[in-house]
């Protein structure tokens, strides 16, 4: 099973970062520390695992080897990103082509439309209520139990997301939410 150094190197390369760039992102003085972590010479301190995960757009659980990364195929991911980026770029490009009077008019319209429930996502759907999700058992120190608890917590989180989506769709169907 690949170790944390291997996973860090893999994610760094996927992100297109050099060891030096990652070192700067994480506040290290040189790439040497990153190189030593990647080749297993240095251990990573526990408090840095979250920082590494954030810098590498992954989860601490993936870096620690507790779970495999669930990724969409790169083509699907790229297509989703490009569609979203294209809309945002088009909006920004149009906005930048306006003079100050036009920009003020767009800002007024945006303020107006974002307060109209017909055009906005309800706050209860947009802002998920924080929920503590935990999985535990009386045998946490036995082999494999921590992995099982981690999977259980992930499953509970997915079920919560699914219930929220179903509630949103039901609300929309009942007419309390308008397109």
UniProtKB/TrEMBL annotation:
CDD domains: HTH_XRE. It comes from Hominifimenecus microfluidus. InterPro entries: Cro/C1-type_HTH, Lambda_DNA-bd_dom_sf. Keywords: DNA-binding. SUPFAM superfamilies: lambda repressor-like DNA-binding domains (SSF47413). SMART domains: HTH_XRE. One of its GO terms (molecular function) is DNA binding. The keyword DNA-binding applies. PANTHER family: HTH-TYPE TRANSCRIPTIONAL REGULATOR XRE (PTHR46558:SF11), TRACRIPTIONAL REGULATORY PROTEIN-RELATED-RELATED (PTHR46558). This is Helix-turn-helix transcriptional regulator. Residues 8-63 form the HTH cro/C1-type domain.
